[in-house]
Target: glutathione transferase
Amino acid sequence: MNPIRRGWGCKKVRSFSRAENEEEEKMKLKVYVDRMSQPSRAILIFCKVNGIEFEEVQINLAKQQQKSPDFKKINPMGQVPTIADGRFNLFESHAILVYLACAFPGVADHWYPADLFRRAKINSVLDWHHFNLRRGAMTYVLNTVLAPVFGLRLNPQAAAEAEKLLSSSLSKIESIWLKGNGKFLLGGFQPSIADLSLVCEIMQLELLDENDRSRILGPHKKVLEWIENTKNATRPHFEEVHQILYRAKTRFQEQRSMGGNNTNLSKRLGLPSKM
Ligand SMILES: N[C@@H](CCC(=O)N[C@@H](CS)C(=O)NCC(=O)O)C(=O)O
Model:
């Protein structure tokens, strides 16, 4: 545990020396992200909504900064998001969300409830997410939109497989976790870290051709409502953090209307090779 964190709840009643201020600065939470990455956006929104003080450190995936020796000292996996809280470094977005929810006392209980059963259910959704919704959404967007940006061929067969996984994941979200009258996963009326993580993943579908997006999301009315509920519960930060995605969406639309492919877009969009 970061020693600074142990001082929560204590008001600072004395002024700090320069050395102490420098020490405090070093202990400040650093969040390493690329805003084009879905899990990075989830961490940023979470910190902003909960008033967590942090420094955003840009790791430009397009420039392969995640592979630099300096960054690999912080995250040997060479991926974003990553945090450094004092001397404590952590990667994997779900582990980070859990840590932040537990480590910062200002975070409201609904994000990661103290109740063991509700917490366990949230963990269950988060574990499921990686190999279902995330795999389906990422693979579909790569093989329908992003591949040429990285010098790869679009792969319709991989896209078709991914669409099946994506659509069945969206159906499961509706029939299992959104089945009641609640506004959020697990029937709640306030969001948890699972809502934030999953909705940020779905947001990348903004990059699709509108027909594809409507075909995939259109049948899932409850999912569409839940996305709106999550946006509303986290405004204005949700939209602010997603600005980069909306800009990319506009450029892809322009490119499509000119009948081009996306080969030359990577530099203009600053897109990473893996998102
Ligand atoms: N399971 C990880 C996934 C992290 C991940 O895939 N990060 C991507 C961006 S979304 C990345 O850093 N890609 C660059 C690379 O792998 O070189 C999490 O949830 O944090």
